[in-house]
Amino acid sequence: MDVLRVVSWNCRRASSQSPLWDYLLKLAPDVALLQEVGTIPAFVQRQFAILQRRAVQKRGGLQRFTTAVLVRGKLDSEVVLAATEDWVSKELAHFSGNLVGVRVVPDSGPPLMAISVHSPAWPLDRARVAGIDVTKVRLSQNADVWAADLLWAGLQCWLRESDRHWIVAGDFNSSPTFDEGPGGSRGNQEYLERMAGLGLVECLRRAQGVLTPTFRSSRSPAVKHQIDHLFVSAALSDNLRSCNVGPQSVVFGANLSDHLPIIAEFDALC
């Protein structure tokens, strides 16, 4: 293929009747990493191979919505995240419906390792890790462990010696702007630096040069937080052609979602 187009989007529990799906097809992704998916309509299912898992609730049950990876092509083996510490592997299994990974083979393109991320806006219940030293995983500026922290820990084993192309994208519920509140830093910038330490490049920041807001809160009309991110391996970032977000006038104006989609294009991969 001449161009690989990747879209990451929190769909705000879109049903099969939502106009969001028509807009997604207009974006023409080869790979789509979606979060808070309600129901994918049949006309979308016919165009993609799909892996989706139900996300976990705060109290441990399953959400009605899913986290999903879609590809115009084929799905291969799933990416099972694990870590050197048993408690981390256990929690990664607990959040397997929020951290959905699979090796995808786009039409006419090389394989990619793709993980769709929905890190909830709530941390692990501290009772789940009572008596365990979690300092190697949690952020130094945050007292809690979050699903995004577990993802980082699980990726270390995969990325240490990997020469594969990786895409890790979704709703991380983490924005450097959260560190600007009266409570001071809570580790949001620290998290971005951690991901960079794994050799991952945040495409939206790479392309735009500044923080690009992706989320509109129901509590405030201001659009200033970038809680959605699209990370890729360094080799893949070398092929980055463009990365931006969908227009607020379309996405928010038509009430498609409270998140803007991130849209990235890459030159043909070898």
Question: Can you characterise this structure?
Answer:
This protein is an alpha+beta fold and about 270 residues long. The chain has a single domain, classed as Deoxyribonuclease I, Chain A. The chain is about 20% helix and about 30% strand. It is built from eight helices and twelve strands. The protein has helices spanning about 20-25, 40-45, 85-95, 145-160, 190-195, 205-210, 235, 250; strands at about 5-15, 30-35, 50-55, 60-70, 75-80, 100-105, 110-120, 165-170, 200, 230-235, 240-245, 260-265. The strands form two sheets. Strands 3-4-2-1-12-11 form a six-stranded mixed sheet. The protein has a six-stranded mixed sheet with strand order 5-6-7-8-10-9. Strand 3 (about 50-55) and strand 4 (about 60-70) form a beta hairpin. Helix 3 packs across helix 4. The longest helix is centred in the middle third of the chain and has 13 residues, at about 145-160. The radius of gyration is 17 Å and the shape is globular. The chain starts with a strand and ends with a strand. The mean pLDDT is about 95.
